Amino acid sequence: MACLEAHSSATTEWWAQDSASVIADLKSDRSTGLSDEEAAKRLSRVGPNELEAEPRRPVVLLFLAQFASTMIIVLLAAAAVTFFIGEYQDSIVITAIVILNAAIGFVQEYRAERAMEALKTLTAPTTRVVRNSTRMTIAARDVVPGDILLLEAGDVIPADARIIESANLRVDESSLTGESLPVDKSSDPLRQARQVGDRTNMAFKATSVVYGRARAVVVGTGMATELGHIAGLLKAHRSPATPLQKRLAALGRRLAAAAIVICAAVFLIGVMRGEEITLMFLTAVSLAVAAIPEALPAVVTISLALGARRMANQNSLIRRLPAVETLGSVTVICSDKTGTLTQGRMLVEAIWTADAEYRVTGHGYEPTGEITENGTRVTDAGRLADLVEAAVLCNDAVLVPGSEWRVEGDPTEGALLALGGKLGFSKEQVATDHPRIMEIPFDSFRKRMTTVHGGFEHLVACKGAPESVTSVCTAVAGSARQRADALTEALEAADRYSTNGYRVLAVAGKAADDGDIDDPDTWEADLTLYGLVAMTDPPREESKAAVEACIGAGITPVMITGDHPSTARAIASRLGILGDGEVLTGADLATERARVLSHYVETVSVYARTSPEQKLDIVHAWQERGGVVAMTGDGVNDSPALQAADIGVAMGQAGTEVAKEAASMVLTDDNFATIVAAVREGRRIYDNIRRFVRYALTANSGEIWVMVLGPFFGLPLPLLPVQILWINLVTDGLPGLALGLEPPEPDVMKRPPRPPRESIFAGGVWRHIAWVGLLIGVLPVAVGVWAEGSGRPWQTMVFMSLAMLQLGNALAVRSETESVFALGFRTNLFLLWSVLATTALQIAVIYWGPLAALLDLEPLAFGDLAVVLAVSTAAFWAVEAEKAVRRSRRRRGIA
């Protein structure tokens, strides 16, 4: 029994052994199963058939962990200092911002920990087994290796098992492998099936039986299953920090260092000039607090929240708020095929007959569309009548009407019913005219299905794999050629369609007499091949434009699918994803090439038949190359890659709960084009955050220059601590928040993504902060020196000019290149009104006695106020001039 603990579905090649050897290895019996005593021993040895969950961190520790970043620590210190010096309002605002950000981070991590719990809900609560020669129902958690499972349609498979008997078994493995269609299963041993999707004699935990029945022996339970393997990958690969989080962490460290330097420098300069130590301490601390843009976390949070709200209106639900900005930094989108790039519905697109080929249009399973021959629309069934009627008769599916027609049953059969509807053959009508009286069901050996129908004449209808159906045909409808030649031509056409990624079915039939009906051996004798139907899951109409938008924005689209390579290649070619890139399969990745995946990943645009671990390898390979990766998926097999990607995007309609819990974003319409719209929003948000950083640090550096330069030009103490804090409050407040509402610039999707490791100060932001900040600092000092020399209230004029210069800068920094006059003031009315409101408040503070006394200010004469306002426009015009120079350099092709 020791071998039971070492063996598992994931590590032992059970699929390569015959069923008798598997049963012998597991010391079980196909007829009697295990005894209760033996099952109890194994259960105590291998443990319950459940996935292991990580111990949850206490909620309190999870919340406290959110306060560990440098920026948060600096803000907490700022809150303490402002409280100490009596600025209680500032202290409360800063503390509230910190708590809000911590709450958001807490919710994100709490949700991430639920991904493992969602995996556990996939398992069936009970299952049928054979024990002590008796069929019984037991709890799925009590299943052990060696148990004999009894499976039938509708069952959720409780553990990994080797099939030992099968009757037309089909299993939906889409959530585990990404295979878009149910898989035919058998008990035959396989020579080579290293990929999970190729193991047609295995049944896997949490997949479901859609047709037939089977008996299987359990080979792996709990974590020793393919699902357990995925659970292990989920635990091992956590979501990485977003580019914005990394940039803000770096900014926080720099600002903390700058605050300490500023405190020390201003304090020492003031003391050396003979100022009071207490006053200089408060001044230095106030200036250090002003140097830190405490509104930055609020601007980021509000920008992300508003962005998430806008994206929700565009079918994108954000689960992790920083993911909104991450989208704007994405360099690679690894997308699933089925239902994301494609419609997720089978559609007949071509028909072959011996005398013509037809093209078919339509949407999903809706029985509307056109059938054309050489560009001419076919308005009646004509030569296609026998083919379409047989395809509808030999069919177990049902179409359900609605806003989106859906199919109950096999998707390929649903596509045939939709084809019939386009030519006036409804299943209800043909079934009434020719009721089914007998059938030979499909099985994986025969690869065809045959039905016999009564009515005013007896009919036999047959459909299936072309090589199987043609083997029982003696004639080809519409062909004057010899039988062998005509059938060869049909098989060549089938190969051509298959090579182009289509699923091909042959349809045949005959009129039968009473004697044929009574003799089953004659049902599939002397059939006439009516033709071939070629179907596929077609691309969404908007997917091609979305792929083109990605490429235009410098984003690399990559398809990763569980489907066959030919299907993947065909869809990728139609969408423009393939280009000159390679198509690799999971089998290719399993070779030594996987060791150097990171070196050639940029040349591969399509991957087919991949395992969960290989999807992780692809994501990590791109990340090692410096990429920011968005990964889409809907199945359990996608969840580790969704969690490890920089942003995981789950499907809302077809997605499993596991995928949704592991993802950062959920698409409610399962549409690739929605991701591209979200990327646009992400880029807008990052641009707005950069605008605020540029604005806030420019303003703050101006305040520092005033305090540093003033004494050198004879101003005793240019501003008091309370005046510094007031300016910082009103200028960083509403105007700063309004910059976070700026609409996207016209070229937002025509430029490449920002490099993942690029600083938030790249692209000339540092230069802008340095020279504009110096300008904002020098001009108030100049006004103060002039005012003091002429006996005017110089400190009030310094106070007013410094604040108004910052507001002028707020209007100008809306774009790094475009003039404000080209953008128009109406495109961000909130900014315009916030600047006007702040200006009014700033003027009121010098004329309203109580507030002026609180801030130690004096009223200004009209002429003095006019001088201040005139000087205050300088920053606006200076930034406009800078942008004009940039536009000129860009036109001349100068970086």
Tell me what the structure shows.
It is a single chain. The protein contains 35 helices and 27 strands. Strands 10, 11, 12, 13, 16, 17, 18, 19, 20 and 21 form a ten-stranded mixed beta sheet that branches. Strands 8-27-26-25-9-22-24-23 form an eight-stranded mixed beta sheet, with helices on both faces. Strands 1, 2, 3, 4, 5, 6 and 7 form a seven-stranded antiparallel beta sheet that branches. The longest helix is centred in the C-terminal third of the chain and has 38 residues, at 672-709. Residues 1-8 have low confidence and may be disordered.
Helix run count: 35
Helix residue percentage? 40-55%
Q: Rounded to an integer, what's the Rg over CA atoms? A: 35 Å
Uncertain segments are: 1-8
Mean pLDDT: 84
The overall strand count is 27
- Please indicate the percent range of residues in DSSP E strands (runs of 2 or more): 15-25%
Question: Could you say which structural class the secondary elements and strand pairing correspond to?
Answer: alpha+beta
Distance between the termini: 71 Å
Largest sheet: 10 strands, mixed
Backbone shape? elongated
Overview in brief:
The protein is an alpha+beta fold and 895 residues long. Strands 10, 11, 12, 13, 16, 17, 18, 19, 20 and 21 form a 10-stranded mixed sheet that branches. The longest helix is centred in the last third of the chain and has 38 residues, at 672-709.
Q: What key phrases describe this protein's structure?
A:
single chain, 895 residues, alpha+beta, 10-stranded mixed β-sheet, 8-stranded mixed β-sheet, disordered N terminus
